[in-house]
Amino acid sequence: MNGVGTARLEGPAAEPPVAAELPDISLGDLVQELARWGIAAVASDPSAAVHGASIDSRAVDAGCLFVCKGAGFRPQFLSGALGAGAAAYMCEAVAAHDGEPLRPPQELRDAAPGAPYLAVRGIRKAMARVSPLIFGHPERKLTIIGITGTKGKSTTAYMLRSILRAAGQEPSILGSIETDDGAERFESHNTTPEAPDLWRHLFHTVQAGRTCMVMEVSSQGLKYDRVLGLPLDIACFLNIGRDHISPIEHPTFEDYFASKLRIFDHAQTAVVNLATKELERVMAAAAHARRCVTTLAEMPGHEDGLAKDRTAHLPASLGADHIAASAGGVDFEVAEGSERHRIRLGIPGLFNVENALVAIACARQLGIGYDAIAAGLAHVRVPGRMEPVVSPDGKILALVDYAHNELSYETLFHSVKAEYPKRKVVAVFGAPGDKALERREVLPRVASRYADLLIYTEEDPAHESVEQICAELAAHTPDSVEHRIVCDRTEAIRQAFAWAQQAGEAVVLLLGKGDETRQHRGDSYPEVTSDLELAREMLGVAER
Fold this sequence. Notes:
CATH topology of the largest domain: UDP-N-acetylmuramoyl-L-alanine:D-glutamate ligase
Strand order of the largest sheet: 11-10-9-12-8-13-14-15-16-17-18
Strand content: 15-25%
Distance between the termini: 38 Å
């Protein structure tokens, strides 16, 4: 459905699932495709055929093109992929002497003597350019919605999926919580997958008879060309704040922000939350799209003139007001032109109205009416996002949330204090290893302004010491704020609930992991009990 104008979903797919097959593609075809984009490439055997592509040697299908890439790549991965049935491999070419053709590095030639190869200059862009061809251009048969922002991507994606389901659609979803393409469903490790994986998921979506993909688009996915060439029917920009700034991610905020803005490069329609910081630059980037829709929620507790000022200078296409917390959710009104619609959001958090409004804007661009919108938002569930667990006597409220950066912390803690002003607050969280180093300073600083007790614990330490990460968090905590280090996450959560019981009425915030069931330790992802399950267990509450 990509093309001029706005994509619209008229109803459930009328046809049965498409029996799509991977096309026959030769290495010579791929060389020609790369030449179209100015990417140098040489095929050892232009007639060698491939069917599909994989970047993971453990997930190779017979006849596929195996892509050799990654900081941890080793030649034995190539040997394993070929042994599993890969028909050829693609790799970054070594520098050639004058007059010599591009060729693979010697260690790859030694690992796979005689195997057909495609040697390229610029492996990231090359992956993105050949993947659509290898998978038969599934993007041409789909409506694709991409969502970016420092916080709220997953929540907005799940809200939109719930609305689409209420309208009779079953979209695929890609994001930081899960991947579901109609053929595969699993807990995600990356918010935005590498190009061969991305186009495989698009292909599966078409195979499953689905017509829509809702996906989160990360700054890393944009910076490193994972979505290069992917046309978006709708590109959403939620907000911007400091995050993912480190030597191995984005060296500066400017690099992070500029990467985010690239989401509009191939968008038909832009949807922008007018409450975002850096609005002028966001709107300038959104002008690359053929149409721009804007949203603005008049949030209670933010009576600083922001909404009125921005609406006066740039009227919102959709607005939200009369926002109020209610039992287990939020009520608000949506204004679209002269029409007003009352909406109940089935998850807590006043700030979630901003996310809901962006989801509504997307739905309206897809031709979905307010009956389906209201039904979808009333019944939405976002795994690990503002998941409430209430003790039988109602005195303890646990909120499980994936909040993990400065902007999401500021928003969440402010909302909790506004909604539960008389309750004590304890927060359990950590910081990840090997990335986003700024969080170790800013998260304690924000949490200290609102919480009565902070408990620092494990949160995907990767190759770093949990003890050291927690010590850094503690070092940036004011002496006046009670805090402790409990490296075992289960024990940390147990102590939080014990403290809450002594406090009387309390809110227990379990942050950073949501309902994830794995911890990133070293190079592995061992299974653990999720924060959500622990909260239910410790409060003696059955799953809703």
